[in-house]
Amino acid sequence: xxxxDRLSAWYGEAQALRExxxxxxEGEIVTLVGRNGAGKTTLLRCLMGLHGSYGRxxxxxxxxxxxxxxxxxxxxxxxxxxxxxxxxxxxxxxSVEENLLLPPVTKGSQEPWSLKRVYETFPPLRxxxxxxxxxxxxxxQQMLALARVLRTGAxxxxxxxxxxxxxxxxVQQIGEILREVKAAGVTVLLIEQNVHFAATVADRHYLLAxxxxxxxxxxxxxxxxxxxxxxxxxx
Amino acid sequence: MLQQAFNGLVGGAxxxxxxxxxxxxxxxxxxxxxxxxxxxxxGAFGAFVxxxxxxxxxxxxxxxxxxxxxxxxxxxxxxxxxxxxxxxPLYNFLFTFGLALILQDLVKREYGVSSQPYPRPPALDGxxxxxxxxxxxxxxxxxxxxVLMCVVVWVVLTRTRVGMIVRAATERPELTGxxxxxxxxxxxxxxGFGIALAAFAGVLAAPMRAVNPLMGADLIITVFAVVVIGGxxxxxxxxxxxxxxxxxxxxxxLYVPALSQILVFILMAVVLLWRPxxxxxxxxxxx
Lengths: 235, 287
Prior knowledge:
The complex is a heterodimer.
Chain A: E1 2-11, E2 14-24, E3 29-34, H1 40-48, E4 57-63, E5 66-67, H2 73-78, E6 81-84, H3 96-101, H4 115-121, H5 123-127, H6 138-151, E7 156-160, H7 168-183, E8 187-191, H8 195-201, E9 204-209, E10 212-218, H9 219-224, H10 226-233
Parallel strand pairs in A: 3-8, 3-9, 6-7, 7-8
Antiparallel strand pairs in A: 1-2, 1-4, 4-5, 9-10
Chain B: H1 2-29, H2 36-54, H3 58-84, H4 89-111, E1 127-129, E2 134-136, H5 137-159, H6 161-171, H7 173-178, H8 183-205, H9 215-230, H10 235-255, H11 263-274
Antiparallel strand pairs in B: 1-2
């Protein structure tokens, strides 16, 4: 589904990513684990085509065997990339429902979620559909950000730490949604610091350090080394 | 006093129309369009030339001049502003400032600095009895049509998909692109529309204000204060602040004539001390 080949990125003179190569297969959930500043968010933004205004990049990114390296962000989105940014990206000037309806439905990828299905899955969004998006609680905003890209029928979700700062109950709920989405065939690349959570939802994990992928781990390895990883991540 | 308040609202209508365009352009492009006043002036001169050289009356000018200047704005955006946007904002600042000077001087060369006469449309030549006082019909028309224009823009912005995209792109341009919307495609028509609004205000001004090359430059400084008071990028704020500033300066004229020139800026300073993002601005705009 996603293939990244020797991707490097710079902020001015400072190199943030160093020849990152990785892949995510169709229907997989893969997490990126690493300390703050390891380059996780930069990597995700590069995949979405959002790094261009900050500095140069080299290397290639392909989605479903098509090279998307030079494409503008909106073209990547229309090819089925669903972006959930680290700050959730909920618009204050749009109502909850407008937030959901803003991104256009992409062609020929996953079955797009209907508004009805979004509201059935996330009842709080229906109750507050006329409220400004930012009047929702943090957890509800995260639901909104996820639902928004599911509604487009995106086939690969790029989620930047969806569980950050949320209560265990909501984290659990997000885990359920991710499993449901995976069962429907959607692929997910997830930034996650909560390694315990990561091991319960994901298939594989990449450990990023100083802009490089230093290790590729499976769930058993993550569970065995949970303490070591937590210590390394400084949590 | 009521009459003076009414004068203030009519003056505020021009501030509101100009601030509205300026605000939408700033929100969507991140460009402070210093040539906005020049397009207001060109609108008035457009009406003057249309009547003087082509015999087109006020109503036809009101219909034709704004779209024509809007198209000129679109060309401008495509040829110059778009290329300068990725650079430091200072480039577009200097470009639009220079453009304003060039446009002013071109008009000055052709028509000199003295004001050109422009008659009121005959249908609106009389006065209207507003109950408490009588008032020139044309001024009532200006107020009504400006309010109507602001309402139409408001409805389009809040109730249509285009408006939703403009709001989203104003708030978070980069994210809006990442959600599959080609923001660049909407930038050009929005710029053209903002310019057309300025020209519309210019045509409206022709029969009641002095039509001269500096009319825009005189007005635009106050309009910038209006936009800052309302909150940069806030459409509702610009309109509300436009009428409020008109009212404040008209009443200031009446009660504290000595302060009338600087009253608007005192108001701006007070608002900024109290709410740094303007009355209806959002703090996030400054991230």
